[in-house]
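Ticket #482: bound-state structure for nicotinamide-adenine-dinucleotide.
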Amino acid sequence: MTVIALHHFIDGTWVEGGGEPLVDVNPSSPRDVVAEGPGASRADVDRAFAAARTAFDGWRRTPARARAAILLRAADIIEAHREAWGRELAREEGKTLVEAIAETGHAANILRFHAQEVERQSGGVFESPSPGERILVIRRPVGVVGAITPFNFPISIPAWKLAPALVWGNTVVWKAATSVPVLAMRFAGALEQAGLPRGVLNLVNGTAAVGEAIVAHADVDAVTFTGSTNVGRSIAAQLATRGIPFQGELGGKNASLVLADADLDVAVEQVAIGAFRAAGQKCTATSRVIVHEAVADEFLRRLAARTERMVVGDAQAEGVEVGPVIDRAARDRVAAAIALARTTATVVVAPEPYGPDELDGGYFIAPSIFELNEDDPGELWTEELFGPVIGIRRVPSTDAGVALVNDSAYGLSVAVFTTGLADALKVIEDISVGVVHVNSASAGADLHVPFGGSRASALGPKEQGAAAREFFTETGTVYLRG
Ligand code: NAD
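RESOLUTION: The complex was predicted; output attached.
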């Protein structure tokens, strides 16, 4: 298959980088090289910031409707390439084709939402205690934003950061995850074709070193990051000493709570989808399941049967439900956790690992389920593994279930399965996470409502919906007398 030349988009031009060589492979079939070329160097990052700074003044003065029109055109371009870019996404990231095409379409809708949002309310007018005076609250862009994105949603997470950043008048220096530069190039290319002025968006591809150069750059005004908690917190700590705002959407260890009165057909299907789609590599994926003891045996029997039926294989193949994890390191990390769990927990479903010659050497892990040891539930209970693995615990009551949901350093998403309104309301009140699903999978986020977690799952203002403007604008309060 074609090997795509890896480029960077700096000051309105596609350029070769001056950094270390990068090779982007297909995780379903690692001999298939998707893209290669030099990553960005520190000098490239400097040029990107210089371009973003120069472009800022003209861009912030461009009427909001004209900025929005560019996003709307880019949305149409993405929509027109939904199938082709979805196929590239499946090849580059390993998400199944159906999910990859859906993600690409979702990115177009995110651009459309923010293009309209900017023309809704952007400030406020207040009465003043002084005669002849009004008080205005206005919003201004924050300046040059550094954006650092993860591998697992290669086009929709960039869309939900860059659309509000750009439409509210900021300019951007963006680094996509090392393993998904092609979708980043497609996204930046759509905005270029849509008429984005030079320097407004700059894409620098590369490893963590490129992200470090963005964070350390003297000219960065704010940093938005999605990725793991440790990396996010270390970036936040560096920026805090310089007084630079940070927004971080971080890791998760999300629970599904199956109560005694749950509709088990719904619970089984939604837990399976929430845990195993995208090979468990969603920040909102279910990795802990807490089940009421009254229904535990039946639930586990049905969940095991559903899990064993899941088709694992090449992300681009018809009918596949679980593709590979992102790379060899991820595969080895998840396989090691499964090997450990075989000795410390009870196996519910855990097929033998794929040998190196099976499935074209792709980084596949079959969905696995363990019932954890109550005295020492271990890392399957506490650590974000980011793979298709569930740890199960039984509880005697709803209250005990809620306590176990809250027994986590993370607080991103939870799914509760019940047919009782009273229990649903109780759980909504007593669980401290950012996103609660009642009778649907823990994974999933809509674009028009706020999204984000609590505790170790996030830092700073939420993303998406109307919340998105909170990070990408700052308010000014104006006392206006004639
Ligand atoms: P990661 O933390 O390894 O990398 C994220 C990005 O940061 C990448 O672009 C990476 O190259 C860059 N990076 C790594 N080290 C850096 C450093 N020291 N300085 C600057 N940049 C650096 O995460 P990942 O493996 O790409 O993604 C998976 C993680 O992302 C999981 O923890 C997942 O839960 C989280 N995630 C969270 C959300 C959310 O909205 N809460 C959404 C998606 C993914």
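RESOLUTION NOTES: The mean pLDDT is 96.
TICKET STATUS: resolved
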